[in-house]
Amino acid sequence: MNRIEFIKELKRKLHEMELDYNVVDEIVADYEELIMEAVESGEMEEEFISRLGSPKEVARNFKGEKKLKNVDTILVALSPFVATIVFMWLGLSYNLWHPGWLVYLVVPVMGVWTGRKGMSTMEFLTAQSTFIATAFYLIFGFVYNVWHPTWVVFFLIIIFGLFTDTKDKKNMIFATLIILASVAYVIIDLQDITKWDWLVFLVPVIYGTATGKLFQVNGDFPDDPKIKAMVITAIGTPIVYLLIGLIFNLWHPTWLIMFAIPVVAIILFANEDD
Amino acid sequence: MNSQLKRGVVELCVMKILSNKSMSTFEVLESISSDLEINENTVYPILRRLTSDSLVEIEKVSDGIGAPRKYFQLSKDGKGKLDSLLTEWNKFIGNVQRILGGQNE
Questions:
Q1: Of A45, B14, B55, B60, which residue has the fewest beta carbons closer than 10 angstroms?
Q2: What φ, ψ does residue A171 adopt, rounded to 5°?
Q3: What are A255-265's pLDDT values in tens digits?
Q4: Cβ atoms within 10 A of the Cβ of A236, count?
Q5: What is the pLDDT of residue B50?
Q6: Where in chain A are the domains?
Q7: Contact A30 B40 (CB under 8 A)
Q8: How far is A95 from chain B (nearest CA, A)?
Q9: Is A61 in the B-facing interface, judged by CB distances under 8 Å?
């Protein structure tokens, strides 16, 4: 096991013990420093790590450390009630039943929030990007009645996924190509230049396929089946939505399929502590 | 040796080492393991506990490259605690040697 693998696994084990986030960060940083100093002093990295013991054994030493406050669980439990109160208030006071129902998006957001343990910032944002994109799409769609080409915002999910590994140049190129293609598509579409505007997406598709990035968005994710399932759902759902929309011109009510993302997130992450 | 006893002994050694100069976790580990056979993972949890008990202080030193490195040193409270532990230890060892040497019969 090398340093990166050890640190990642140690972090995961410490989060599983529900330790305070600052405590976890501190312990992880100290072990990283210890390993690096050992290597600088001539120790073989993997040999030194094997002498430290498995991340599970190492983590066991910190059972008595400060625990995480149970705020997350309370927030998840309260979110449906808070959403209902706000929804009723908006409806009864301002007759905003629609789009007031969008407040229910807070429920899946809370589900993902509790599942952030062990995730890097970018992994967390990747999980949240589904809600950011969905919320933006719904709000923009209902307020301006512009559903097309607003759906392009769902590419954010893939872009965030790619940005979880900024050291990988291919990831960065792929993400840049998706952003450029999306911008080009929106401009061409709004100016109604050609109906073949969607062809611009062939550029990132070809690059992604050639480099293997299109079907392996993030090399870190497959370690955790829950994260893997979440990413597949987050990417797969908008694709299904787009296909049905483009082929059958059934954008409404097909958008309802997007709720599969928060539902899966709740099933996967909300009961993680049980 | 009983692991709890060994842990206590290592803790005493860590405190003694840090009473002379400030050291990083790895330096403490190297210093102790040159004389005692210990697991690489023994020292850091001890340092962490001593720090939370305010017996050890942390100083962050930057060498200009990368993140600042943590150096541990015995605090004033730690020095007082070490003195009392050493007195206890010497008395304990003296008594044990007396028993083992048959002088208490």
A1: B60
A2: -60, -45
A3: 778 777 777 77
A4: 13
A5: 94
A6: 3-60, 71-165+218-270
A7: no
A8: 55
A9: yes
